Amino acid sequence: MHLGEEELLRLVEKLRFSEVGEKVRSRIEEFKETGEKGNSEWFSEMCFCILTANSTAKCGLKVQRELGAQGFLSLPRPELVRKLKRAGHRFYNRRADFIVDARKFKNIKDILSKKSNEHEAREWLVENVKGLGYKEASHFLRNLGFLDLAILDRHILAVMRENGLVDGALKPQGKKYLEIEQRLREFAKRAGMSLGELDLYLWYLKTGEVLK
To answer: Which domains does the chain have, with CATH numbers?
Structure first.
């Protein structure tokens, strides 16, 4: 869909006052409700985001629904590998390793609650949790109701490229990720919404779905 920035802005505005907008607002409320829950629910969400890297949200959801927080927290690695493989995850061994390693942060809500804001929390996640880059850490925090972060996955970047918001940068990392995030933040400000809300609309434009 090649619209240009102004047309994209109008399309997002139109979606905002449609049935899609209702779904987006409902999803954001779900994120905030998850953020009110405890360490185990936060850990489960972190594992979901570890699983989405180089995979799909649907695959991550499938595993999360089957295992639940306790499965992520306590399932022996061989069984975890089997579950991921059966769910169709391409990198079942590596992701199982990441999840097992992340168990040392099972009190993840307590840890992140000590950070001054979501940006500081994201930096900590990127530096300390194997399997979480800026994209995955942003996804995790957005799913807890922290909405000033961009999830620059292939769908979002595709919409941005097609409509003149960004050039290149298929998999931006580090400083480049933050630069593109700021560009999207400026667009979100023009649209009168948070980055977290805008992400759901742009993702819908590419997938036809409003997932987490």
So the answer is: 5-33+149-207 (1.10.1670.10), 37-142 (1.10.340.30)
